[in-house]
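Bumping with the actual sequence this time:
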Amino acid sequence: MTLEELLTYSPADIVKDARLSGYLVKYYRQIFDNEACFCGSKYEQYYYRLKIEGLKAMKNQQECDFRLKTNGALPMSFGSSETISNVSMTNDKALKFLKANKNRINLFSKYPENWKELFETSTEQVNKEDSEPKEDDVIVVTSEDLDNNPELLEAGIQEGDEIQLGEIVKPEAPVNKLRKTRRAKKNK
């Protein structure tokens, strides 16, 4: 019996039928890596968690090449509220998790043989995305910026000023809308 078929029954039907409750506990253990007991009072909880998260989690597990050894959730990085678990695992999320420390591969019970290649490719892609300037980045204006963007000079921007990048590409913005600050010059 598939999980989809099982979830067509009501929780009350599952509690009454030992065969259905066996499937319920089996799927719950398989998807959530939990020790689920054969206790009638827990079946409703298992049923609703499977109905809400189970189908998506099962699909992720079938498509994902990574699997953690642990049953719980691990933080993506130190102090982060974002977590990774077998329930929420995707290949991209696993590679992002490894980006913080590639020795974390030891935390996985299942991973592709070419994980190092995937890791290098994903790290290069992330580094490329990180290096591309974004509109909300603040930059220090150089003489080259002034040469290539005459509207900066017209706006009173000077070399060494810090400005928000999005304001450079919007030359129609009036001078008073440009956020600029003087960078403190260090005395030598």
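The tokens above came from a reply further down the thread. The longest strand covers residues 108-110.
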